[in-house]
Amino acid sequence: MSPKPARRTPALRAPDRLVFLLSLVPYLLDQRVVEVSEAAAHFGVGATEIRDAVKLIATSGLPGATGTYQPNDLFDIDWDSFEDDDVIVIVHHVAIDDAPRLSAREAAALIAGLQYLSALPENAGSTALAALTAKLRAGASAEPSRLAIAEEAADATLAEVRRAVASGRQLEFDYLNARGEHRRRLVDPLRITSLGADWYMQAYDHLRDDVRNFRIDRMSGLRVTDGAVADHSGRTIPETLFQASPDDLEVVVDVAPESLPLLADYLADSTATEVGGRLRVTLRLAHVHGLKRLVAGLPGLVTVIAPDIAREAVAAWATAGLAAYPGTSDDRDPIDSEA
Description:
This is Protein pafC. The chain is built from nine helices and twelve strands.
């Protein structure tokens, strides 16, 4: 029986070949010394394609100040090792060290964000985050500053809520709603989601006998009870934080066209009328307090037209902020469905 012919690796298309070449150079530099067969196995191509690519790399470079290619302007390899032993060793490379790097301050900011993510329960012990942090430190133009991320009260509350969701236990807590009203609540936690920098819990509220949204940083006195969460598989859990209600307030606003997608969850319908280069639409909100948050998040892009109660609320809020200048204001009312 004659031996089967070796299986041929299909040739790369032009776009794939470009991606392959762009990936091959840093791979060879990282490996320092690598056999052709090992490189071929790594990229899933034939040994011949690796050899051809290496020869192409050896004729590539960056022209110097004269506009012509001098010996030091080209990549160079150890030709003896390549031709005699089928081993690739790049002995001179160009342009790679000129690639832009993150500054020490930029790297420190990104590392701080990774430290915050690592502190979340679901990311505990994440090797991917640890590896990325190490790469940022190694790739920065200078040693990044050492930062420590302090845990906020909301972070601890978020961890408790996650534990309750994971264990299927009911939650009891004090909640401060947008109107400044305190009330003790007992809920079946169903889902955790976020809107911008804020975290929300979607839960079945035993007081309201319905699903409600609760902003994590407005919860206090949290206690995970021994009571098990009921079966809510037959209940529709809204995909968005905002759900329409017959008691909602309808607010007419003029909004910049590019900002309209950011208000999609609050649109009363799909009708939009162009007025002076902007789109006039109607929003549906649980109460007027939430309108301030929307306007603050889109400065100069949203103008409240009606009703008067909405215009007055936003104007009073802006006036109060201006009166406090140059101090800061933390009037951050939520857009939640709990009322």
